[in-house]
Amino acid sequence: MTRTTSPSLRGQTRCVEILLAAGAQVDARNIDGSTPLCDACASGSIECVKVLLSHGAKVNPPLYIASPLHEACLNGSAECVRLLIEVGANLEAHDCHFGTPLHVACAREQLDCVKLLLNAGANVNAAKLHETALHHAAKVRNADLAEMLIEFGGNVYAQDNRGKKPSDYSQRNSCTAKCLAYYEGNPLRLTQLCRLSLRRALGQKALEKIPHLPIPTKFIAFLSYSQ
Fold first, then answer.
1. Is there a contact between 114 and 145 (Cβ–Cβ < 8 Å)?
2. pTM, entire model
3. Can you tell me the mean pLDDT for 73-101?
4. pLDDT digits (tens, 9 = 90+) for 108-126
5. CATH number of 7-123: 3.90.1150.10, 3.30.590.20, 1.25.40.20, 3.30.360.10?
6. CA-CA distances (angstroms) from residue 160 to 11, 25, 29, 79, 157?
7. Does pLDDT of 9 surpass 50?
8. Helices (H) and strands (E) in the chain, counts
């Protein structure tokens, strides 16, 4: 454990500031390979995250384990997720155990984090062993989460490495099962498909570009998923 790791894990911002001022390495690795920024995100301390970033901490350190964004999603810290996205966190960072940050947020049912990731342009159909975020939503039996993913383009027919669709993991007659069955039999409305196509064309910075489009305010709200 490095000098900055323990305070970062505990969200002890002042201790982190003192250590950094004394020359501690901002991206020093822990025994498991994680950095202080990973630990600060795991603790959910937004102030500690800000201090580390202000001292040059890498938001996308070269890791084979969970990234800072993964850790923020595991913790359910929407504030940390929002800040990491703003400073350029890799939305598709892949951990061999967790998959992408979106997989993590869905597995933990962190809906605020999920919406932030999707609105920022995270790939809703990214696969971990062919398993998508929608598979996770079905497994945790969260109908609201499943519907959110579908509205952002989640593929209800995607099959994992066992050849199973998300609906195959839902409990019979549950709200999640009914939600998935509905969308398997009924495609998204044309307006929803147009929204997906436009956002896809605008890329990962879609949310920043949409407010500047020469269209009515209510259309901007619709494209931004704010209504």
1. yes
2. 0.88
3. 93
4. 999 999 999 999 999 999 9
5. 1.25.40.20
6. 38, 41, 34, 32, 10
7. no
8. 14, 0
What amino acid is encoded at 189 in this protein?
A: R
Q: What token pair was written down for 123?
A: 């790939």
Closest of 66, 16, 18 to residue 42, by C-alpha: 66
Fold annotation for 189-226: Elongin C; Chain C, domain 1 (1.10.750)
What is the CB-side half-sphere exposure of residue 123 using CA atoms within 13 A?
13
**Nearest-10 Cα torsion for 116, 206, 46, 88:** 120
What is d(CA 160, CA 129) in angstroms, rounded to the nearest whole number? 7
* 25-31 contact pairs (CB < 8 A, 24+): 26/52, 26/55, 26/56, 26/57, 27/56, 27/57, 27/58, 27/61, 28/2, 28/3, 28/4, 29/2, 30/1, 30/2, 30/5, 31/1
pLDDT tens digit sequence for 118-177: 999 999 999 988 899 999 999 999 999 999 999 999 999 999 999 999 999 998 999 999
Q: Is 130 left (phi over 0), alpha (psi -120 to 50) or beta?
A: left
Domain ranges of the chain: 7-123, 141-186, 189-226
Task: Using pLDDT thresholds of 50, 70 and 90, give the confidence band for residue 227.
Answer: low
In the chain, the amino acid numbered 212 is H
